[in-house]
């Protein structure tokens, strides 16, 4: 955990890690048959399927981008809530094309990274007011997204391993 605290404070590390998450997810899901993408996992991942993971990561990224833009556009303003723990409802993603979901995730992440790349070191400490958590800086949000990515990339790996064992 100490490594995460140290690495998660370096803007260049965070940008690199955030940039790589899309490719990691795309690589993990490449070639998985659609029926397998829609199979629910068991155990600690119960309620999730691989397509839900991808849709969730895309939706959270869209919210993260809105948070970043809110902070950059108006210093110490309100930022929208993004539910990092929300399990998407099946009807919200089951008819979506997995390649399109991954492409949309990539699109939002690329734009988030553009915002981050343009920040000076001091701007990483700009903050907004989250409705439940109070003051959050851009560094706080980027670190949170980094951890969120890791959590769901490990989740996808567990789920793929479970599918392979069936």
Task: Report a brief summary of the structure.
This protein is mainly alpha-helical and 166 residues long. 61% of the residues lie in helices and 5% in strands.
How would you characterize the overall build of this protein?
The protein is mostly helical and 166 residues long. The chain is built from 6 helices and 2 strands, in the order αααααββα. It has a two-stranded antiparallel ribbon. Helix 2 runs antiparallel to helix 5 (98-117). The longest helix has 28 residues, at 138-165. It is elongated. The chain starts with a helix and ends with a helix. Mean pLDDT is 92; it is low at 1-5.
Radius of gyration: 16 Å
Order of adjacent strands in the largest pleated sheet: 1-2
H-E string? HHHHHEEH
Helix content: 55-70%
Shape: elongated
Query: What are the low-pLDDT stretches, counting only 5+ consecutive residues below 50?
Result: 1-5
Please, how many helices?
Answer: 6
Strand content: under 5%
Distance linking N and C termini: 33 Å
Largest sheet: 2 strands, antiparallel
Strand tally is: 2
Overall pLDDT metric: 92
Oligomer state equals single chain
The helix-and-strand class reads: mainly alpha
Identify the notable features of this structure and list them briefly.
166 residues; mainly alpha; 5% strand; disordered N terminus
Write the SSE topology:
Layout: H1 2-7, H2 11-29, H3 34-37, H4 50-73, H5 98-117, E1 127-130, E2 134-137, H6 138-165
Antiparallel strand pairs: 1-2
């Amino acid at each position: 955990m100490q490594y995460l605290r140290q690495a998660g404070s370096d803007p260049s590390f965070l940008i690199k890690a955030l940039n790589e998450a899309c490719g990691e997810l795309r690589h993990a899901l490449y070639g998985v048959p659609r029926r397998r993408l829609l199979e629910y996992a068991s155990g600690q991942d119960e309620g999730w399927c691989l397509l839900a993971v991808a849709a969730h990561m895309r939706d959270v990224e869209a919210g993260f981008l809105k948070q970043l833009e809110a902070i950059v556009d108006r210093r110490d303003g309100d930022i929208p809530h993004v539910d990092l723990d929300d399990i998407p409802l099946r009807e919200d993603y089951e008819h979506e094309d997995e390649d399109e979901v991954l492409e949309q995730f990539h699109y939002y992440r690329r734009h988030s990274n553009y915002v981050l790349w343009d920040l000076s070191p001091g701007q990483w400490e700009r903050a907004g007011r989250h409705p439940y958590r109070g003051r959050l800086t851009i560094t706080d949000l980027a670190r949170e997204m980094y951890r969120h990515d890791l959590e769901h990339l490990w989740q996808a790996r567990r789920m793929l391993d479970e599918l392979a064992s069936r």
